[in-house]
């Protein structure tokens, strides 16, 4: 196994030091690292920030069932390119990830691909139909060790089913990740309900459809004494409810997506379905509220909700298009632009919201760890001074539905290490050496 000497890198944006990666772990930090480097491959790290490998709690890999949009391999290559060393693969596949057999298959395909650890999310209900609980216990005790359960794409709207799920997962320290969308209030909805939806004539998805479910679920979580996680929170009112729930001591965590940190419903005016997503892009006031919530810790993590879709499902009229946008390869850049470059989060905070906290919520071992001697070599090296223009054709994801296409974003992933092995080096995915390699992000000097 190759040994790497990361020379003069800044862990969590702090003072530059040398870091030695050997035998899959952080073997030395500081003057000792150079002395023990021997034949190590040297990575010049001047000006680069070293973070723990990123952990995504919310990824759609589409395999099994929609391999035309993404496969476990293409999706985890995109993850590596974006600096991730672990992803949670959502359950809305075909067949649904609602049995031990299916989650084990997804887990095994992820392990065999080798680009990032894949932790399958188990469905809450059989077939995501919202009627009968899936075999949560069997998925938890399977080889995939499932701890996160979600019907994402659909809301667990029946309060009795939600209550039973919350009670059931307590036995194995699981968590229910809720896609908060009251279906009766969003029938036929196409975008955020507000000024823009009424001006352009698209059916609205009101903020209250999200907030009503979150309010109900934090109360249910309190009642049964269980753990709740709220997926892709998107409104100012949702931030207020989570803040209130935490102040009462309710065991709830929440995520925001990169796109909800920066994009607004104004983008729907062009009727480009690349901006069609669930929950919908909201208003500038909501964007400010989710940034403030992330900055003050009300929102625990950033999760991508990477949702690849084929051209047929996206390049059509707005009403017919699928909901969702890709995000693994732009997440860190968007967080840098909206939160770090604006002074609202430090790099140490970024390590928390994109690595340590999602690993803790998912009960993932060996990820999201401090950068310290003896810890697994799951790391990402970032150049915050680079700039790049997002080009879907240069991305590793098999789908082209990035809402940031053509947009310039800061930062570049220079290297990603999975247990000491480089999955990305010098901005290039490490699968072949024939010049046809795709850059992991076009940046200065890439
Ligand atoms: N976010 C989306 O708009 N779409 C997701 C489902 C989901 O996250 O709800 C998908 O699977 O495509
Ligand atoms: Zn969802
Ligand atoms: Zn999702």
From TrEMBL:
Which GO molecular function, any one, fits this protein according to its record?
zinc ion binding
User: In the Enzyme Commission scheme, what number(s) does this protein have?
Assistant: 3.5.2.3
Question: Pathway membership of this protein?
Answer: Pyrimidine metabolism; UMP biosynthesis via de novo pathway; (S)-dihydroorotate from bicarbonate: step 3/3
What does the record say about how the cofactor binds? Binds 2 Zn(2+) ions per subunit.
Q: Which family does it belong to?
A: Belongs to the metallo-dependent hydrolases superfamily. DHOase family. Class I DHOase subfamily.
Keyword terms, alphabetized: Hydrolase, Metal-binding, Pyrimidine biosynthesis, Zinc
- The residues listed in the UniProt record as binding substrate, with positions renumbered to this chain, are 60-62, 92, 278, 309, 323-324
- The gene designation is pyrC
Which biological process, per GO, is one annotated for this protein?
Answer: purine nucleobase catabolic process
- Function text: Catalyzes the reversible cyclization of carbamoyl aspartate to dihydroorotate.
Q: Which residues bind Zn(2+) 2?
A: 152, 179, 232
> Catalyzes what?
(S)-dihydroorotate + H2O = N-carbamoyl-L-aspartate + H(+)
Quote the CDD domains the UniProt record gives. Answer: DHOase_IIa (cd01317)
Pinpoint the Dihydroorotase catalytic domain residues: 48-235
Known cofactor(s): Zn(2+)
**Where does the record place the catalytic residues?**
305
**This protein's GO CC annotations:** cytoplasm
The name this protein carries in UniProt is Dihydroorotase
Name the enzyme's class: hydrolase
Residues at which Zn(2+) 1 binds: 58, 60, 152, 305
